[in-house]
């Protein structure tokens, strides 16, 4: 338990009708760091992951087995997972294709995540595939991963808007999401890659998935905070019954292949919000703040998280 200053937790005032408990899916070491220009030392990444796990975060996405030329920052994925040892094998890692899966299997990973696009342009820019071709790439990945007993998460990017195509129809997102689940993914994380979504849009999208037969227990929400909407969107998600939220310690983040993608919803901002609502999360806010302040020191710039700045003056 880290020492927080007096008044460093909000009053807890529950609101009826919201979930009693949520799962925070921490993406700082992967989504947070993938966009960093200066290469971060593998040992620093390992310590970041370890600190986040020690803070009680139940899931910490560690890295990506993507092409090292596409994301040079994560070229050390195998070294990182080797350094993390047994503890690392239970952490999810991104794999876009069979080559990525092979690399993850060689290291004994038990959870992988594929990442699809709701739009044609982003499929091409992020995966070098058309919208349809992405499913052909993912199909054997999911099949082989499941045959090997792995759990598979699927992301859908550009669910609320695309910097090249503009608005993205809800039916298009639901169509892509359903196809990814039909391949055999256990959970679908709906990404607001460029942070343009607003609360009513979140409600409408979640409701559309439910109407298409996808329960909220299979959905997660992944907000980037580019336009400052991430917490309002989380509130809409809670009201719609979603109980898994992706967040990034300190608000690090961005996608190198999506112009205008900035940091993810900061884990600390989410923790403050959930604590105020009396929603259980099992995470020690002070320890996450400490990890983010330490990471900000490594990166040489302050955290963009309002809660980190308020609590740590960082
Ligand atoms: P490609 O160039 O089409 O690959 O890239 P390819 O299949 O034609 O293969 C070309 C060469 O790359 C081959 O080598 C492969 O072996 C090698 P060669 O035979 O020529 O020597 N190769 C690999 N090497 C290592 N690891 C691999 C791998 N795959 C192929 N996995 C590819 C296609 C998918 C690989 C590429 O486009 C890629 O790596 N993209 C990743 C982009 C990325 O990581 N983006 C960020 C993550 S997504 C995100 O942040 C959004 C999210 O947060 C949600 C949200 O916010 O919306 C999840
Ligand atoms: Mg993201």
From TrEMBL:
* Alphabetically ordered keywords of this record: Lyase, Metal-binding
Per UniProt, residues of the Pyruvate carboxyltransferase domain are 22-289
Cross-referenced Pfam families, in alphabetical order? HMGL-like
User: GO MF annotations for this entry?
Assistant: lyase activity
Q: What family name appears in the similarity comment?
A: Belongs to the HMG-CoA lyase family.
Please state what the protein is called.
Hydroxymethylglutaryl-CoA lyase
Organism from which the protein derives: Nocardioides panacihumi
């Amino acid at each position: 338990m880290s020492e927080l200053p007096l008044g460093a937790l909000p009053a807890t005032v529950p609101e009826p009708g919201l979930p009693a408990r949520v799962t925070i899916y921490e993406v700082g070491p992967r989504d947070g760091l993938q966009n960093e220009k200066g290469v971060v030392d593998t040992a620093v990444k390992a310590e970041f992951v370890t600190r986040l796990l020690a803070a009680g975060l139940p899931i910490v996405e560690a890295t990506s087995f993507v092409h090292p030329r596409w994301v040079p920052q994560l070229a050390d994925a195998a070294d990182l997972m080797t350094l993390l040892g047994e503890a690392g094998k239970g952490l999810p890692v991104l794999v876009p294709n069979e080559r990525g899966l092979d690399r993850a299997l060689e290291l004994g990973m038990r959870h992988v995540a594929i990442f699809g696009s709701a739009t044609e342009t982003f499929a091409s820019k992020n995966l070098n595939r058309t919208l349809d071709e992405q499913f052909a790439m993912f199909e054997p990945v999911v099949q082989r991963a499941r045959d090997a007993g792995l759990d598979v998460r699927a992301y859908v990017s550009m669910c609320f808007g695309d910097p090249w195509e503009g608005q993205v129809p809800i039916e298009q997102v639901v169509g892509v999401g359903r196809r990814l689940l039909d391949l055999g993914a256990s959970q679908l994380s709906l990404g607001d890659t460029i942070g343009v979504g607003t609360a009513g849009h979140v409600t409408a999208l979640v409701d559309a998935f439910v109407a298409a037969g996808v329960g909220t227990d299979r959905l997660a929400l992944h907000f980037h905070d580019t336009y400052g909407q991430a917490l309002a969107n989380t509130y809409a998600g809670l009201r719609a019954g979603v109980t898994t939220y992706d967040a990034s310690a300190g608000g690090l983040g961005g996608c190198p292949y999506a112009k205008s993608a900035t940091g993810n919803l900061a884990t600390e901002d989410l923790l403050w919000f959930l604590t105020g609502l009396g929603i259980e999360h099992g995470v020690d806010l002070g320890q996450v703040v400490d990890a983010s302040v330490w990471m900000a020191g490594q990166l040489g710039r302050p955290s963009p998280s309002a809660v980190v700045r308020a609590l740590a003056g960082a």
